Amino acid sequence: MKWKIVNLLLLPFLLFPFSSFSHVGYVVNTSANDILLKNLWLEKIWNAFSSNGIFLIIIIFVSITIGYLLALYISKTKTYQKISDKLHAFSKYNTYIVSVAVLIYLINLAISKEFISPFVHTIEILITLQYIIAILIILGFILKKNYITFAGSILGIIGYVASIIISKNIYIFGNAEVLSIFVYLLLACDVIKTKIIKEHVLAFGIGFSLMFLAFYEKIFKPHLSALVVEQYNLQNYIPMTTELWILTSAIIETLIGLLLIIPHTRKAISIPTLLVLSMSLLIFKENVFSHITLFAIIILFILTKTQKTIF
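Now predict its structure.
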């Protein structure tokens, strides 16, 4: 009962169809840093919250309540239960889904001469390492040789850490879901015996990634987010000022990240999250591969019966 109350208060704020999931750094021209001053936009964001904070909180709370009641009603229908049961039957392909997703992600980065993240341009030997990681992961799964997948996962984890060291750019934490997939596959090999539920690792990875991007892009570098709002005319979709767009996007992205981490709210938030993520790609016209790992994890959550405990 207490978690139903928590869901009622927090969950389906996604009546707000904000495009808050796209990596700002993927779509904005970074040379435009000099166009808008960071401090100016920080002041604008603060003023927007000061003058509209209560209004925003009320609107979000009402949307959460209406959205959750609607989702709750739908989830009780026989049609939903039948669809949910059929979806659960595909959960046996979870490992395959994330394996293929990370394979496509890594190979596309390697072709672009990028390593682990689109923000790491590096030497040829590391690009080759990325091909090796991708091949080991998919080969281990196809041949059903756990030690091959284990080796690929270990190299993937090392590669992710190396990408942070090489680039010296904390923006790579915005790709934390990639690291979580490597850890997920590592646990799926059963080489290391643990009681940790693999899906929770993915949940923490994607949740942390979204919350990090909310703060890093919208709060600490709002001038870049402002460029995205204005460059793509997002006010045409929802008539709000640029400051309110940035502020509400940060709030929503933070909440979604948190709700994906919490087991009791994860499945309910996954379907609308998938829809909003798809909308973002359509609006920004990005390559799907740059977010394919996000898609794979969200789909996995939809297919899987959520475990309520971490162990």
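Strands lie at 114-115, 117-121.
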